[in-house]
TrEMBL record:
It comes from the Bacteria. NCBIfam families: PRK04949.1. The gene is cysZ. Pfam families: EI24. The chain crosses the membrane at residues 22-42, 62-80, 129-146, 193-224. This is Putative sulfate transport protein CysZ.
Amino acid sequence: MNTLACLAEAFAWLIRPGIRRFILLPLAVNITLFAAGSYAAFHYSDALVESLLPGWLAWLHWLLYPLLAVALLILTYYSFSLMANLIAAPFNSLLAAAVEKAERGDPSPPATPLWRDILMSLIQELHKLLYFLALALPTLILALILPPLAPVLWFLYTAWCAALQYLDYPMANNAVPFRAQRARLRQNRADTLACGGAISLLTTVPVLNLVAMPVGVIAATLYWCRHLRQP
């Protein structure tokens, strides 16, 4: 798929001149928050899973326990990934702009004050967060109704949200509204879910999860430039 090819190529962009300087701070944020997420997952997951398993389904604990554990692990890592993206959003937007400039060879856009870039990035991140929370509610209800399907439902949820999260950086830089972003990505649903799913899986792999954020931003920007930019 197109998005997976862009994701594989994104690793080589991490060391490109002109790109490396936009990666250092998001990398530091990622390391800190994923360390906190790993601590929370391994120290509190057992008690939380036990509290979610109803007593009348004790005879199915052998099946439900691993399914709920996987779902909670995915949700925990994705929650900390959301926090990391919220903090690093202004710098991810700068990284996306630098990658697009290098990819397309366009002149730099007119400079805007840094405080305005930070403010607009935070507003956009909050907009996305509200959408993700609204989408999480029906996903949670379905997961509780159909526990065996919970990991699949949460994976689809995280894949869609991760794709929106990372593709938003280049698309917002090009003044594409969030509603229009969602409409365009629905037209490329397979590539969109492949992109988000691959980035989500990357965040769960030790060591690689430390560079998941900049790799995701670079991959999303390459995919935007090569396949999504034209209506």
